[in-house]
Design a protein that fits this description.
The strands form 2 sheets. Strands 1-3-5-7-9 form a 5-stranded parallel β-sheet, with no helix packed on it. A 4-stranded parallel β-sheet has the order 2-4-6-8. Helices cover 7% and strands 24% of the residues. It is built from 1 helix and 9 strands.
Length: 123
């Protein structure tokens, strides 16, 4: 059984949420709501293998606690927002199998774990 529909902006009201894994729900479609950026305590966001389209919201860069971000295997397009580069705790970023363009924004002093992944070519 899988989830079906869109990811509502109401999710932004779940401010104490620490982990969100909705992976491998191909009938979960629509765009990624900017309200995901309101989940300031979130450390894990896994939306891999869904049917999301549109762009990666710039507001994801507001989630200072985010350490694991998996958006792979969707239909996302455009660039990765520069705000992702300021996530100092981010050590895992998987955006493969989308239609994303451009470079992965990195602040070398702020994202040592992500820098390590890039240097090891894990992305």
């Amino acid at each position: 059984m899988s989830l079906k529909g869109n990811l509502s902006g109401d999710i932004g009201g779940m401010t104490e949420l620490r982990s969100l894994d909705l992976s491998f729900n191909p009938n979960l479609t629509g765009t990624l709501t900017p309200r995901l950026g309101d989940l300031l305590n979130l450390n894990t966001l896994i939306l891999a293998g869904c049917g999301f389209s549109g762009t990666v919201p710039d507001e994801l860069g507001n989630i200072a606690e985010l350490s694991f971000l998996a958006l792979n295997s969707n239909n996302l397009s455009g660039g990765i927002p520069p705000s992702i580069g300021k996530l100092s705790k981010l050590y895992w970023l998987d955006v493969a199998d989308n239609q994303l363009t451009g470079t992965i924004p990195i602040s070398k002093s702020a994202t040592p774990g992500l820098d390590l992944l890039l240097n090891a070519k894990h992305l």
